[in-house]
Design goal:
Elements: E1 2-3, E2 12-13, E3 15-18, E4 24-30, E5 35-41, E6 48-52, H1 56-65, E7 69-75, H2 85-100, H3 106-120, H4 127-131, E8 136-139, E9 148-151, E10 158-164, H5 168-172, H6 175-184, H7 193-207, H8 212-224, E11 228-230, E12 235-240, H9 244-251, E13 253-257
Parallel strand pairs: 5-7
Antiparallel strand pairs: 1-2, 3-8, 4-7, 5-6, 8-9, 10-12, 10-13, 11-12
Amino acid sequence: MPVYGPDPAHTGSLGAGIVIREGVTTTIWPSDDTEVTVERRDPVSGNVIEVFSTSPPIRYLLERMGVTARVKTMCSLPIGAGFGLSAAALLSTATAADALFCLSLGATECGALAHEAEIVHRTGLGDIAACMGGGRDCRKGAGIMAEIKREHDSPASLCAVVFGPLPSPEVLGSPGAMARVVRAFPGRCPGDIADFFRLSRKFTEESGLATPQVLSALAACDDAGIPATMTMLGNGIFASGEDAFPLLSRLGEAFLLHPADEGVRLLEVGQ
């Protein structure tokens, strides 16, 4: 559920999700001018599928950090499909820049700056807070300083299918859509992973965010007895169980996902 405060630090969302390992890897180098490249690569071959030569949120973030850099972010999941990749890119960039330029900001300040960039550009509301740790999260307040409950009870793997983009700024900027989201919010944290799928599915149906393709895919999962729900915010679904991947593969491009034990981390530091 969206929460709009007097500033980005007090703006965000309440709700639950699952942090996944398949996120973003960011590499940065010192540069006189800021350059940002976003690449999506095939997870098997490593071939580049999509390339974007700019990212206003990342540029904003680096300006707020007072540095200029050449940034490359790489991912294997579709962009704009509800996987929280914008948040992952921002948080990984902030973390890498903090280490490279010896800013000594720390995890909390990096998270706050990344959250601000996401709020300002309407690319998300609560994903930064979620990405700062692993597991199945439940955000009880807005912003990164709010209480977050985390459980590590998700299945070893999940499966998702994507039918196309569902741009976050269009939804987050719609008063009507946000009003439906507020009415549909369950108002509590899930008790366990089964309860998570139940509450999330109920929210999907009552919020009005689901596309016809999403509703059709969810119905197919129901027929097969597979727990499934919509990716937020994305035109796709994710599901649990051994039979999920074969079924979702018949519906579209399917992706195998794995819950993360931890949040953002540094892989290598050098000059």
